[in-house]
Amino acid sequence: MAAATGGGGERSSTRDRLLAALEDLELLARELIEILAISRNQKLPQPGEESQILELLIQRDGEFQELMKLAVDQGKIHHEMQLLEKVVEKRDNDIQQLQKQLKEAEHILATAVYQAKEKLKSIEKARKGAISSEEIIKYAHRISASNAVCAPLTWVPGDPRRPYPTDLEMRSGLLGQMNNPSTNGVNGHLPGDALAAGRLPDVLAPQYPWQSSDMSMNMLPPNHSNDFMLEPPGHNKENEDDVEVMSTDSSSSSSDSD
Amino acid sequence: MRKLLSNLLCGSNSYCFSRVSDDTGNRLRFQLELEFVQCLANPNYLNFLAQRGYFKDKPFVNYLKYLLYWKEPEYAKYLKYPQCLHMLELLQYEHFRKELVNAQCAKFIDEQQILHWQHYSRKRMRLQQALAEQQQQNNTSVK
Q: Given CB atoms, is A239 within the 8 Å cutoff of chain B?
């Protein structure tokens, strides 16, 4: 029973037992033959001995037979186990193959998803920055027609025109006007600036096209923290007055005309 | 020219404080900043600012950083000289600000700007020349 349930784990003990049984049989057989040989020559000293030995022999033989059967069964089971192991191996390989394929598929999908996300991001970005082509064309026309980004065709090295606002333009702009109030009758500032202002002909009135003030009426600069660490308020007041006067007086900048 | 700058800074500060004429003040500040940022396209003006030490002034540098809002499309569309934005970007770097003290640097930038400015007209002239040559060739071959 124990042997039957033992299975593979007791194979060595089955073998040992088989060998032990064989040895026993061998011993018993030898003894029997000796006793028979002796009993031929002499009378039996112990009459029961040969029957004892015979019984033992029969018993041992019986055990041996059983063990043999057991061994055969165990052999069959072992064979089945081997078959099953092979099947298991095959299944293992299948699973590994599937795993590899799944991994590959996952990798491919991950790449695809990533690229799709990138594409979506760029679509979103493009949509955010969408500008009508008409606007772009208008802007391109503005900056080229005024020779701001493209030189005039008749430009020669003596020409005062430049791809940036020149001194003259800067002084005649709004910023320059804050210093050169000669046309508006506010208190003068530096004599140097007043001199510069004096040189300006009236033709070059502050309304210079590069300020685009007509379009900027509704535009406001972003709010910034006042923390540029500017000059103390006392200094500001004087300019504040000037600038307020400027804004009411200036007929040039159209910011007031709504 | 220096007063331009200090006026701008003072002006903008005072408009931030004033509550009464906020909208007009902001509009004016917009125009002033529009003008100023475009002045940055003038390398001679940059040289002027550098030589008078404005670029060493931390508040001024902060102001330059603040002016970067002109890169946004809704503001950039008002710029007549969009090349000023490139100069503004360069001005964010201290090395560039230091270099501008040299007059040669400003001159070099000026020359390059003018050459680039003439790029399209040169290209067009070349094309026209090529076209004229081709027409001449056609005429001679027809004859």
A: yes
